[in-house]
Design goal:
heterodimer; A: five-stranded antiparallel β-sheet; B: mainly beta; seven-stranded mixed β-sheet; four-stranded antiparallel β-sheet; 11 strands; about 0% helix; globular
Chain lengths: ~110, ~110
C-alpha cells in the first residue's frame, strides 16, 4: 500500500444500525494514525490519535482499533444516529517527516431516521 | 482562546493575481500546516512548519509559498493564481508533531 486508503467511499445506514469503516496505510514508516470527523460546512475535528499496535480507543458510541503490522485501522459506530452523519477521515503520520499527516479520501456516512 | 483563525473566509481572484491567506493560532502550537480540499481528493498537504523559521513542502506545494516568522502566524501566499488553485484551504495546528490537529474554519478561494 503506497497511499492512505479508506473504504467504503460512502455508506448509507438506518438509525440504530452499527457500522464500521476501514483505513489502510503504508506501515513501513508509521508514526501515528488519526481519525477525524468532518461535518458539512464545518472543519474537521479529531476523534482519535493512536500510535501503538493493538491500540483501542473509545469515545461514546465510536471506537477505533489499530494494527500497525498489517497497516490498517477500523472505526466502529454503534447504534448510528442521524447526528453521526459526516465524513470520517483517517490520516497517517509518517516517521521522520516532521509529523506531517497524509489523509485518506474519507468515508461519507449518511444515517437516515 | 480563539483557536485557529483564518482570513478571509471567501475570496475571488483573477488568473495571475497574487494574495495571502492568513492563519493564526493562539494555543502556542509549534506545528502548523496548510491543506487544500478538492472534491474526491480529500485533504492534501501543501506546506507545513515544525516551528518558527522552519517550513517544508507537503504533497502539492507548487504555486504556493509560506513563511513562519512567529509561532502564532503561518500565512500562505499564492504567487500567481491559476484556476487549478480554486479550492477550499484549511490551516491546522498541533501541539506536537503527530499530535491531534486543530483546524481553522477554511477559506473558499475561486480563481477565474
Amino acid at each position: 500500500i503506497l497511499n492512505v486508503e479508506q473504504s467504503p467511499q460512502s455508506l448509507h445506514v438506518q438509525e440504530g444500525d452499527s457500522t464500521n469503516f476501514t483505513c489502510s496505510f503504508p506501515s513501513s514508516n508509521f508514526y501515528a494514525l488519526h481519525w477525524y470527523r468532518w461535518e458539512t460546512a464545518k472543519s474537521p475535528e479529531a476523534l482519535f490519535v493512536m500510535t501503538l499496535n493493538g491500540d483501542e480507543k473509545k469515545k461514546g458510541r465510536i471506537s477505533a482499533t489499530l494494527n500497525t503490522k498489517e497497516g490498517y485501522s477500523y472505526l466502529y459506530i454503534k447504534g448510528s444516529q442521524p447526528e453521526d452523519s459526516a465524513t470520517y477521515l483517517c490520516a497517517e503520520g509518517v516517521y521522520n517527516q516532521g509529523g506531517k499527516l497524509i489523509f485518506g479520501q474519507g468515508t461519507e456516512l449518511s444515517v437516515k431516521p | 482562546n480563539a483557536g485557529v483563525t483564518q482570513t478571509p473566509k471567501f475570496q475571488v481572484l483573477k488568473t495571475g493575481q497574487s494574495m495571502t491567506l492568513q492563519c493564526a493560532q493562539d494555543m502556542n502550537h509549534e506545528y502548523m500546516s496548510w491543506y487544500r480540499q478538492d472534491p474526491g481528493m480529500g485533504l492534501r498537504l501543501i506546506h507545513y512548519s515544525v516551528g518558527a523559521g522552519i517550513t517544508d513542502q507537503g504533497e502539492v506545494p507548487n504555486g504556493y509559498n509560506v513563511s513562519r516568522s512567529t509561532t502564532e502566524d503561518f500565512p500562505l501566499r499564492l504567487l500567481s493564481a491559476a484556476p487549478s488553485q480554486t479550492s477550499v484551504y484549511f490551516c491546522a495546528s498541533s501541539y506536537s508533531t503527530g499530535g491531534e490537529q486543530y483546524f481553522g474554519p477554511g477559506t473558499r478561494l475561486t480563481v477565474t
